[in-house]
């Protein structure tokens, strides 16, 4: 009988044995090429307008309406209708049933050719890279719905080498722009410095059956999905065909990556997908050298220097 290979996580040692499924825990520890185009004149608010009109399908209508009002001053009847449809899609969620949501079209006029006077460019506490990565709030939702929405859309990828299919999902209840998150994931995976750097591998996105799932989830849900690995509400994992990314890390990154959270998000995607590709953890080769991607940089990169790429 072949002994199963231990599951892997960006956290550290795994538990020695599996345990039965248990209800969601509330554990906490102290250690605690996107499709379409955006007019240049409104680049500063693309996260708000597109996020509110087409992608806040996992957060509910009241928050969406607030973002539309904040971004555009007032919402047109067509915009309000789009908001209500987006919210209704979220409220239709029940149990742990997985479904694909229909994209909501952006009504004409929602992207003005000139910014409105006094427009709020970014949500409090977020930068432009944060919004580009899909964040619509700097708050960390500790425990969300436990159900997941597939980000609709397909992308064949660069089409070089063997193609691996990826489905991107977001837990319902997170203030996250799903299409922006999916675009970040796929751009990272197909980056020239990524796993397909030698042309032997590329990644295609699908909203149907896929070889790999990349899931953004609340800390409590990550604990459930990664069990029996003890993620402690803090870290992420790549196992059983799922790269499960912790919202806490997606929002906050780590101290070493604090000045470049976008790089940490690239590290997180590449590292957990790396596990799905069969790569094990590596150690820092020496002080001042570049950290291997498969080093557990979510704890620390030092004495190496941080590196988010398999082939930088």
CATH class of the largest domain: Alpha Beta
Query: Poorly predicted ranges (pLDDT <50, ≥5 residues)?
Result: 1-9, 11-119
Q: Tell me what the CATH architecture of the largest domain is.
A: 3-Layer(aba) Sandwich
CATH topology of the largest domain: Collagenase (Catalytic Domain)
Overall pLDDT:
75
C-alpha-based Rg, rounded: 19 Å
- Euclidean distance between termini CA atoms: 39 Å
Helix content: 25-40%
What percentage of amino acids are in beta strands?
5-15%
Order of helices and strands: EHHHEHEEHEEHEEHH
Global morphology: globular
Structural class: alpha/beta
Overall number of domains: 2
Number of helices in the DSSP assignment: 8
Can you offer a commentary on this structure?
- This protein has helices at residues 46-55, 61-72, 77-91, 128-132, 178-189, 219-226, 247-252, 261-276; strands at residues 8-9, 99-100, 148-150, 162-171, 201-205, 212-217, 237-239, 242-246.
- The protein is of the alpha/beta class and 312 residues long.
- The chain folds into two domains: 40-129, no CATH class; 143-276, 3-Layer(aba) Sandwich (Collagenase (Catalytic Domain)), CATH 3.40.390.
- Strands 1, 2, 3, 4, 5, 6, 7 and 8 form an eight-stranded mixed sheet that branches.
- The longest helix is centred in the C-terminal third of the chain and has 16 residues, at 261-276.
- The termini are far apart.
């Amino acid at each position: 009988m072949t002994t199963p290979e231990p599951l892997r996580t960006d956290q550290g040692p795994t538990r020695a044995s599996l345990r039965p499924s248990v209800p969601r825990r509330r554990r906490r520890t102290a250690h605690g090429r996107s499709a379409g185009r955006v007019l240049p004149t409104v680049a500063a608010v693309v996260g708000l307008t597109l996020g509110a009109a087409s992608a806040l399908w996992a957060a509910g209508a009241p928050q969406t309406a607030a973002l539309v009002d904040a971004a555009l001053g007032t919402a047109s009847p067509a915009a309000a209708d789009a908001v209500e449809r987006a919210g209704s899609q979220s409220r239709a969620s029940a149990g742990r049933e997985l479904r694909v949501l229909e994209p909501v079209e952006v009504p004409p006029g929602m992207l003005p050719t000139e910014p409105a006077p006094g427009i709020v460019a970014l949500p409090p506490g977020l930068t432009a890279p944060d919004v580009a990565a899909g964040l619509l709030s700097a708050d960390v939702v500790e425990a969300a719905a436990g159900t997941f929405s597939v980000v609709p859309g397909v992308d064949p990828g660069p089409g070089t080498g063997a193609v691996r299919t990826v489905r991107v999902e977001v837990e319902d209840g997170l203030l996250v722009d799903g299409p922006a998150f999916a675009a970040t994931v796929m751009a990272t995976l197909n980056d020239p410095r990524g796993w397909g750097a030698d042309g032997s591998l590329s990644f295609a996105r699908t909203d149907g059956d896929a070889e790999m799932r990349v899931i953004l989830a609340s800390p409590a849900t990550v604990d459930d999905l990664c069990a029996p690995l003890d993620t402690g509400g803090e870290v992420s994992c790549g196992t059983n065909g799922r790269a499960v990314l912790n919202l806490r890390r997606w929002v906050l990154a780590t101290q070493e990556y604090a000045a470049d959270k976008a790089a940490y998000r690239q590290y997180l995607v590449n590292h957990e997908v790396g596990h799905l590709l069969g790569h094990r953890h590596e150690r820092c080769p020496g002080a001042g050298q570049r950290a291997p991607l498969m080093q557990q940089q979510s704890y620390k990169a030092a004495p190496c220097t941080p590196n988010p790429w398999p082939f930088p």
